[in-house]
Every structure is written in structure tokens, then in C-alpha cells.
């Protein structure tokens, strides 16, 4: 039996790459290590345990991981004299023991379904000096029972399901996160209720496709019902991600419109504006269906901040296909769009498609798309000029400690000078009304009105 006491007093550092699900996994790992008597370090040079929580959605993630692991070789000796380097997350799930060949200084590998066993793996590595790997194919759900170490007291990530059944042709996620598995609704509601008692004001419900929540239990999707139940817990702000267009039901749109705690922001990844490319991507909707969905959402929630993901350079994308993406951006009028150049992922169907398009052409298209996205984002923010928005304060601007930074209900970044006579550190997690005096492409700024609450 593993002696976990060997970890007591050890220092640890976690670096996270990728999506919000990875961030939440890191919080769980951190919470487990805290419970075992470990101490968090702010820099890898001060850590006995260095953990990289990885993402494998894009090829650059692999290169980045190898560079980060290699850099650990040049770190000074750890406080205890023995440093254990671990790799978890999606790359670990995908490559398993294969990583040991390419990363000769890595001691522990754990997959996405094995984070509950991190303590045992690390303790064994310290005890015997060997390399340890655990990559399970099925998620037992044990991770949801782990303690967690939240980075902020006012916000929490709340996973409602794991896995994905969609198998978009470019995406590795179903292979590393497994099939969809929904948590019981009562368990989620109880968790959020407990978080509210702890002072959490904002939660983000997490899933690869939250719109299909509950379908794996043999029923119709129940995400709308879940939103209403979570809205009754007393939490002040509810966000969620990700939301697949093909599964966004009218009752979910109604819940967003009718539940006061559900914020008027919807991330609805389109990926391409060309129906031909969407079919190759296996997205299961057309350009026309997506735009019709946007119209239905806006009819019900006129001020909604609609955000999206777009891939440029999918294999076989022509200039005509790309132009359809540009015109869709202009029609949909996104408040924000996350744009990516296609990255081939071994093991996905799209990786087998040959594409003669020069990289320079793809880059030019990407740059053009970014300019259109910047225009729609700027135009969306203009409607807030002269209005008052409630900002949930997250801290201060990286550029100026005298300026508060936070989020509006529409998930916009908001800047505001620290009110005279107040300590910015004591304002974190409070809500402050801000009169918007300037609306830029990626943020709003203004002056405070009234007292923080």
C-alpha cells in the first residue's frame, strides 16, 4: 500500500494548458495535494513536484510541453533535494507510456481519467525512484469527489459532464476524454448550493457539449432543466461552455432568457461558414441552420453576447469556402470570436485529407478573418456606451494597479479606476456598477457609481 505521508511538506507547482476543463482538473489535483500536506509554490524552481496539465487540441501543445519539460532539467535543486516531474491531461491520456521515451526526465504520467490517483503515483515515484504511468480508458467519476483548490473565492468551475460523442473530424477530444457521461442533477445542484454558502458568486458549468447533458441517462437532454435548478441555488451568475449548435434546444434558449442568474452570453462554436466544410468537419448542421439559430436566439434575447470558435485552413478549404466564413461573421455579428489555424491531429479523420493550400495563403486568410472579428466585436461593444454595467471585480489591470479589472454579465472585460480611499485587494469578488465611458474592441472602461456590494 502506498505511503502517502511521504508527500507531506513537499512543495508543488502546476502549469495548465488548454481549456476550462483542464483548469478544473488542475484545481482538483491541487486540492488533493493540499489535503496530503503539500504546499503550493509560485515558481517551478521552488517545487519538489512539477506537474504539467496538458491539452492536445493543437499541435503546438506538444511542442510546448516538450520545451517546458526540458526546461526543468536546468532548474536548481528542489527544496527536498528530489524533484518529481509529472504530465497529466489530454496528451498524457493520448500517448501514455510513449511519453517516457520522448521525455526522459518525466517521472509520472496520468491520464484524464486517472487524476484521482495522482497522490499514489507521486508518492510511489518519491519512494522508489521509478517512473509510474496510469492511463485508464474509462472515467470512474472519482475526480468529482476530490477536494479542490480554487484560484478565486468568488468563482468556481463546475463540471456537469465529461466526454464527447460528436467526433468532429478534426478533433481529438472524444479519444482522450471518452464518451459523454453526465453527473446526477441533484449532485450538481448540491455542489453549487454548497459553493454559494462558501461565498461563490459566479459559476461556469463545464462540458464538452453541455446541450446534450442527461442524454446518456436514456432521456432527452435536460440542460434547460439543469439551468433552472442551478438558478434556484442563489448563485448570482451562471455561465456555461461549450455549447454545440446542433443540440441547442428552444427550451434552453428560454431558460437563458428567463432565469435571472443565467448571464446573457452564449458561446456557440460555428467553426466554418461553409456548409461544404461543415459537412467535412462532421458538424451536423449547415450554414443556413446556424444563422437561423442565431436569429432565434437574438429574437428571444436581443442583447445576448454571442461568441464563437472558427478554424481557418481546414483541409480542402477553398477561397469560396473562406469567403462564406467571412460573410457569416459579418451576418452573425459576434461579440467575440476565437480564431485558429487548423492543426492536424494524428488519429482524427481530417488528418488523412491532403491539402495543397500554401501556408502563406492560410495565414493571409486568417489575418483577414481577424480583422472582421475585430470589427464585429468593436461594433457590439458600442451599444454599451453611456450605460451602466455591474462589474464582478477580479483584481487590477496587469498594466496599472490603480485600475480595477472585472467582468460584465455579458462576459466583457471591464476597467475602472479604484474608487478613492479603497483597497483594490479588498474589492476582489465584489460587484461594482460602472458607467461606460469608452468601448474598445476587447474591453469596456468607465467610472464607478455607488458602493461595491
UniProtKB/TrEMBL annotation:
<dbReference type="GO" id="GO:0035597">
    <property type="term" value="F:tRNA-2-methylthio-N(6)-dimethylallyladenosine(37) synthase activity"/>
</dbReference>
<keyword id="KW-0408">Iron</keyword>
<comment type="function">
    <text>Catalyzes the methylthiolation of N6-(dimethylallyl)adenosine (i(6)A), leading to the formation of 2-methylthio-N6-(dimethylallyl)adenosine (ms(2)i(6)A) at position 37 in tRNAs that read codons beginning with uridine.</text>
</comment>
<dbReference type="InterPro" id="IPR038135">
    <property type="entry name" value="Methylthiotransferase_N_sf"/>
</dbReference>
<dbReference type="GO" id="GO:0046872">
    <property type="term" value="F:metal ion binding"/>
</dbReference>
<comment type="similarity">
    <text>Belongs to the methylthiotransferase family. MiaB subfamily.</text>
</comment>
<dbReference type="InterPro" id="IPR005839">
    <property type="entry name" value="Methylthiotransferase"/>
</dbReference>
<dbReference type="InterPro" id="IPR007197">
    <property type="entry name" value="rSAM"/>
</dbReference>
<keyword id="KW-0004">4Fe-4S</keyword>
<comment type="subunit">
    <text>Monomer.</text>
</comment>
<dbReference type="InterPro" id="IPR013848">
    <property type="entry name" value="Methylthiotransferase_N"/>
</dbReference>
<feature type="domain" description="Radical SAM core">
    <location>
        <begin position="150"/>
        <end position="379"/>
    </location>
</feature>
<feature type="binding site">
    <location>
        <position position="171"/>
    </location>
    <ligand>
        <name>[4Fe-4S] cluster 2</name>
    </ligand>
</feature>
<feature type="domain" description="TRAM">
    <location>
        <begin position="382"/>
        <end position="450"/>
    </location>
</feature>
<dbReference type="GO" id="GO:0005829">
    <property type="term" value="C:cytosol"/>
</dbReference>
<feature type="binding site">
    <location>
        <position position="19"/>
    </location>
    <ligand>
        <name>[4Fe-4S] cluster 1</name>
    </ligand>
</feature>
<feature type="binding site">
    <location>
        <position position="168"/>
    </location>
    <ligand>
        <name>[4Fe-4S] cluster 2</name>
    </ligand>
</feature>
<protein>
    <recommendedName>
        <fullName>tRNA-2-methylthio-N(6)-dimethylallyladenosine synthase</fullName>
        <ecNumber>2.8.4.3</ecNumber>
    </recommendedName>
</protein>
<dbReference type="InterPro" id="IPR006463">
    <property type="entry name" value="MiaB_methiolase"/>
</dbReference>
<feature type="binding site">
    <location>
        <position position="55"/>
    </location>
    <ligand>
        <name>[4Fe-4S] cluster 1</name>
    </ligand>
</feature>
<feature type="binding site">
    <location>
        <position position="90"/>
    </location>
    <ligand>
        <name>[4Fe-4S] cluster 1</name>
    </ligand>
</feature>
<dbReference type="Pfam" id="PF04055">
    <property type="entry name" value="Radical_SAM"/>
</dbReference>
<keyword id="KW-0479">Metal-binding</keyword>
<feature type="domain" description="MTTase N-terminal">
    <location>
        <begin position="10"/>
        <end position="127"/>
    </location>
</feature>
<dbReference type="GO" id="GO:0051539">
    <property type="term" value="F:4 iron, 4 sulfur cluster binding"/>
</dbReference>
<dbReference type="InterPro" id="IPR058240">
    <property type="entry name" value="rSAM_sf"/>
</dbReference>
<feature type="binding site">
    <location>
        <position position="164"/>
    </location>
    <ligand>
        <name>[4Fe-4S] cluster 2</name>
    </ligand>
</feature>
<dbReference type="Pfam" id="PF00919">
    <property type="entry name" value="UPF0004"/>
</dbReference>
<keyword id="KW-0963">Cytoplasm</keyword>
<keyword id="KW-0808">Transferase</keyword>
<keyword id="KW-0411">Iron-sulfur</keyword>
<keyword id="KW-0819">tRNA processing</keyword>
<dbReference type="InterPro" id="IPR002792">
    <property type="entry name" value="TRAM_dom"/>
</dbReference>
<dbReference type="InterPro" id="IPR020612">
    <property type="entry name" value="Methylthiotransferase_CS"/>
</dbReference>
<dbReference type="InterPro" id="IPR006638">
    <property type="entry name" value="Elp3/MiaA/NifB-like_rSAM"/>
</dbReference>
<dbReference type="InterPro" id="IPR023404">
    <property type="entry name" value="rSAM_horseshoe"/>
</dbReference>
<keyword id="KW-0949">S-adenosyl-L-methionine</keyword>
Amino acid at each position: 500500500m502506498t505511503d502517502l505521508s511521504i508527500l507531506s511538506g513537499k512543495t508543488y507547482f502546476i502549469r495548465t494548458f488548454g481549456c476550462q476543463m483542464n483548469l478544473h482538473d488542475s484545481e482538483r489535483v491541487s486540492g488533493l495535494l493540499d489535503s496530503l500536506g503539500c504546499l503550493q509554490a509560485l515558481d517551478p524552481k521552488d517545487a519538489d513536484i512539477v506537474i504539467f496539465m496538458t491539452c492536445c487540441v493543437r499541435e503546438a501543445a506538444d511542442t510546448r510541453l516538450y520545451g517546458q519539460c526540458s526546461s526543468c532539467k536546468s532548474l536548481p535543486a528542489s527544496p527536498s533535494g528530489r524533484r518529481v516531474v509529472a504530465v497529466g491531461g489530454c496528451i498524457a491520456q493520448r500517448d501514455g507510456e510513449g511519453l517516457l521515451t520522448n521525455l526522459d526526465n518525466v517521472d509520472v504520467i496520468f491520464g484524464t481519467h486517472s487524476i484521482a490517483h495522482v497522490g499514489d503515483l507521486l508518492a510511489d515515484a518519491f519512494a522508489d525512484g521509478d517512473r509510474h504511468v496510469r492511463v485508464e480508458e474509462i472515467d470512474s467519476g472519482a475526480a468529482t469527489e476530490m477536494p479542490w483548490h480554487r484560484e478565486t473565492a468568488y468563482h468556481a468551475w463546475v463540471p456537469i459532464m465529461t466526454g464527447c460523442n460528436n467526433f468532429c473530424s478534426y478533433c481529438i477530444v472524444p479519444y482522450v476524454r471518452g464518451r459523454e457521461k453526465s453527473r446526477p442533477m441533484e449532485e450538481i445542484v448540491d455542489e453549487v448550493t454548497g459553493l454559494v454558502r462558501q461565498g461563490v458568486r459566479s459559476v461556469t458549468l463545464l462540458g464538452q457539449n453541455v446541450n446534450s447533458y442527461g442524454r446518456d441517462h436514456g432521456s432527452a437532454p435536460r440542460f434547460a432543466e439543469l439551468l433552472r435548478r442551478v438558478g434556484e441555488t442563489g448563485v448570482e451568475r451562471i455561465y456555461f461552455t461549450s455549447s454545440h449548435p446542433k443540440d441547442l434546444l428552444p427550451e434552453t434558449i428560454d431558460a437563458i432568457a428567463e432565469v435571472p442568474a443565467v448571464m446573457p452570453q452564449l458561446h456557440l462554436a460555428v467553426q466554418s461558414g461553409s456548409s461544404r466544410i461543415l459537412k467535412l468537419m462532421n458538424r451536423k448542421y449547415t450554414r443556413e441552420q446556424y444563422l437561423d439559430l442565431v436569429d432565434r436566439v437574438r429574437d428571444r434575447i436581443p442583447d445576448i453576447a454571442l461568441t464563437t470558435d472558427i478554424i481557418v485552413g481546414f483541409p480542402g478549404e477553398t477561397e469560396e469556402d473562406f469567403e462564406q466564413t467571412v460573410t457569416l461573421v459579418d451576418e452573425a455579428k459576434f461579440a467575440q470570436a476565437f480564431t485558429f489555424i487548423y492543426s492536424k491531429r494524428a488519429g482524427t479523420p481530417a488528418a488523412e485529407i491532403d491539402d495543397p493550400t500554401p501556408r502563406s495563403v492560410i495565414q493571409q486568410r486568417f489575418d483577414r478573418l481577424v480583422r472582421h472579428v475585430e470589427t464585429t466585436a468593436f461594433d457590439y461593444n458600442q451599444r454599451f456606451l453611456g450605460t451602466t454595467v455591474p462589474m464582478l471585480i477580479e483584481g487590477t489591470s496587469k498594466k496599472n494597479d490603480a485600475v480595477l479589472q472585472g467582468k460584465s454579465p455579458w462576459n466583457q472585460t471591464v476597467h475602472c479606476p479604484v474608487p478613492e480611499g479603497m483597497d483594490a485587494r479588498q474589492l476582489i469578488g465584489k460587484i461594482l456598477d460602472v458607467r461606460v465611458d469608452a468601448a474598445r474592441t476587447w474591453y469596456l472602461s468607465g467610472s464607478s457609481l455607488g458602493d461595491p456590494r
